[in-house]
């Protein structure tokens, strides 16, 4: 359960995370993840974050529903769902301190990835999203917030703005549904964690809605800088703490 005294901090972080994700297309998790890990610990933070992100992605997919490219979602999900199942099962048996170190390394890796700005060759066939979905499904099932790593491949297929944001959100939802099913079966997703995640839902929806309104008005580099600084500080902190 979320203490009402902590709600302004957690709600504000959730709103900002959804706003950043809606404008930049990915990376909003970097804003919310460190706050949740410090508040609840990594073992509980990931399920809460998954629920919050699922609500945000539902909102983003809904707000951009007319621009979603369904074939991309279908092929991505074909590869992602089985591997997300494996990643989520791996999460259930991994010690918390190992998860924390993995999370720290992952966040620092994302900063390097974003700074290097890798540009994969243009993807001409939608079927390439099946193996891509498999790789990102495994990583997304184990951790959370793989959007910055996925972004170059969606962009390489020619998805821009609303098409990218909506398609990425819907494809990611299938990974998150799979994770929550595993967490529920393993009794990791307790009623208290479910309540905590749902408590943040209105803030995520509000942030996604505002992000849709301002997506073409705010320089993306502002959010990119926020994301990278947050990732770097949190990553180093998690490595040290782990």
Description:
The longest helix has 25 residues, at 161-185. The chain has a domain at 4-67 and 95-121 and 142-164 and 189-241. It is built from eleven helices and no strands. With 242 residues, it is mainly α. The chain is 79% helix and 0% strand. The relative contact order is 0.23. It has helices at residues 7-24, 29-40, 42-63, 70-93, 96-116, 129-142, 147-156, 161-185, 191-199, 201-214, 220-241.
Mean pLDDT: 82
Number of helices: 11
Helix residue percentage: over 70%
- Give the low-confidence spans: none
Largest sheet: none
Shape designation = globular
- The ordered H/E elements are HHHHHHHHHHH
Query: What percentage of the residues does DSSP assign to strands (E)?
Result: under 5%
Oligomeric state of the chains in view: single chain
Brief sketch in words of this structure:
This protein is mostly helical and 242 residues long. It has eleven helices and no strands.
Write the layout of secondary structure elements.
Layout: H1 7-24, H2 29-40, H3 42-63, H4 70-93, H5 96-116, H6 129-142, H7 147-156, H8 161-185, H9 191-199, H10 201-214, H11 220-241
Helix pairs in contact: 1-2, 1-10, 2-3, 3-8, 3-9, 3-10, 4-6, 4-8, 5-11, 6-8
Which features would summarize this protein structure in a list?
79% helix; mainly alpha; 11 helices; single chain; globular; 242 residues
């Amino acid at each position: 359960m979320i203490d009402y005294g902590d709600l302004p901090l957690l709600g504000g972080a959730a709103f900002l995370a959804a706003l950043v994700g809606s404008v930049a297309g990915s990376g909003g998790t970097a804003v919310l993840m460190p706050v949740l890990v410090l508040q609840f610990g990594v073992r509980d933070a990931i399920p809460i974050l998954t629920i919050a992100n699922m609500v945000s992605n539902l909102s983003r997919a809904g707000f951009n529903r007319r621009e979603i490219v369904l074939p991309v979602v279908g092929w991505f999900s074909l590869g992602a769902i089985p591997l997300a199942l494996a990643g989520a099962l791996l999460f259930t048996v991994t010690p918390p301190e190992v998860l924390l170190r993995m999370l720290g390394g992952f966040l620092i890796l994302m900063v390097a990835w974003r700074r290097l700005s890798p540009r994969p060759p243009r993807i001409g066939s939608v079927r390439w999203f099946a193996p891509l979905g498999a790789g990102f499904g495994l990583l997304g099932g184990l951790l959370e917030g793989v959007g910055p790593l996925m972004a170059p491949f969606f962009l390489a297929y020619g998805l821009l703005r609303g098409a990218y944001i909506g398609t990425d959100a819907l494809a990611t939802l299938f990974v998150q549904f799979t994770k929550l099913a595993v967490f529920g079966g393993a009794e990791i997703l307790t009623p208290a964690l479910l309540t905590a995640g749902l408590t943040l839902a209105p803030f995520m929806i509000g942030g996604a809605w505002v992000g849709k309104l301002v997506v073409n008005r705010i320089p993306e580099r502002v959010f990119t800088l926020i994301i990278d600084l947050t990732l770097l500080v949190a990553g180093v902190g998690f490595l040290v703490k782990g």
